Amino acid sequence: MSGYTEKEKGFSIGWFDENYLQLAPLALITNQESEIIAFASIAPVYDHDVTLSIDLMRHLPNVPNGTMDQLFIRLFEFAGNRDIPASISVWLR
Questions:
Q1: Would you tell me which CATH number, out of the four given (3.40.30.10, 3.40.630.30, 3.40.50.1970, 3.60.15.10), belongs to the domain 20-88?
Q2: How far, in Å, CA of 48 to CA of 16, rounded?
Q3: pLDDT tens digits for 14-50?
Q4: What is the pTM of this model?
């Protein structure tokens, strides 16, 4: 996501690293030009698809209000359609 200028924060599981992001599925929000404006990565959870765990979350500056809300709603719908209880946990170091 070019244009992201915030200092990277360290979290308990991951950080923004393109190689790290290659390891798990991503939920994306794109604009009308098909550019990614927000994303969340799905953390690997080894519990036989009982849990959907959201890891990294980022959005560009000046995205429309509600962009991240929409991302989470879609993730919860995705999980619900697969009978997976979604959980979100974020821990700052």
A1: 3.40.630.30
A2: 26
A3: 567 788 888 888 999 999 999 999 999 887 777 776 7
A4: 0.70
